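Weekly structure sync, notes
Attendees: PL (lead), two postdocs, one rotation student
Agenda item 3: pending single-chain targets
PL asked that the sequence for the first pending target be pasted directly into the notes so everyone works from the same version. It is reproduced below exactly as submitted, 165 residues in total.
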Amino acid sequence: LFRSRGVDDPATMSCKHKLASIMLRAGKASEAADIHRELLQQAAASFGPGHPNTLSSMHTLANALFKAGELQKSEEIHRKVYLARREVLGVDDPDTLSSMNSIALVLSERGELEAAERVHKDVLGILMANFGPNHPGTAKSRHNLADVLMKAGKLEERQKLLGIE
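Predicted structure, written out during the meeting:
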């Protein structure tokens, strides 16, 4: 495929993305991140730095770096993606909220639980206002916040959030 279509062909890029996803699932996060770096360079060259496809590539790279334990770099990239998405798509857009959630997950992994809690609460508030309490995205956000509350030892607040008496 690389030879017949070229490295910048969408089908080739899709195959590379699938390969990186398989490698990530197989526990080869660093190798997957290397592939995602290549894909990001190709997306930026093809679409420009602020294009949604480029931002999606950045987000995917940041996720691979998170899995590889490169938390500082992952957070840096997630913050850049968040700022670009917020500017272009708005704060209520699902992709922007996904970026916020990713930042909170990195903060939680780094042990910055108060900061992670604040971001998760912001995301949950926006989802509740826009989609209501029963939307799958709201439920996932509530779960993420509950995880941080548990890590922080805030068990009563966690139980209240989850409706556990």
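Discussion points:
- The chain has a mean pLDDT of 93.
- The CA atoms of residues 98 and 118 lie 15 Å apart.
Action: rotation student to compare against the earlier draft before next sync.
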